[in-house]
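Fold this sequence, please.
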Amino acid sequence: MTVEDRLRELRAPGEGEARRKAWELAAAEHAARGRRRRRLGPVLAAAAGVVALVGALSPPGDAVADWVEDRVRAVVDDRPAPSRAAGLDELPGGGRILVLAADPRTLRDSPVPLTGSPWIVGGGVRRSLLGAVNEATWSPRGRFVAATRGSELIAVDLRGRRRWSVAAEATVRAPSWSPSGFRVAYVAGPELRV
């Protein structure tokens, strides 16, 4: 058995509880939004569970990312929303979390990378930052979010205002802030750019 196989079999401490809490939070937000966005709850729950899992297992780096990618595409839950109301703007440990929420049909059936809308959740706030994007990541001090959309890299502040954007000739992916927060590295086609 390889190291990757062993990492795929690992379960994070409290994974079940985190998934349950994420489901409750997402379902409550889902119910509050009404009929039009009826299927958003399970996706938010899956995204919150993934974020909690990544936070718990982040040291292995790429192996964790591969493991999460495998799991995210497999997690689609059609159970009815729980009856107990919970607020999506309250996290058990406080702080904020960046969630990429997508249509469950994308998670279930699509072999292409999923797209969704980045949300900031926690600290008494829940705010959608942009429309559909492929990836999103916090700046080191949590003041900005960098997101990719097709061949564009976009930086927005926490109110969703676009601060800057860069267009590339190829699809942009894997944005990563420098420790100083002044530069963003990303991959455009086969090239690594800063």
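The CA atoms of residues 151 and 169 lie 6 Å apart. Residues 1-90 form one domain.
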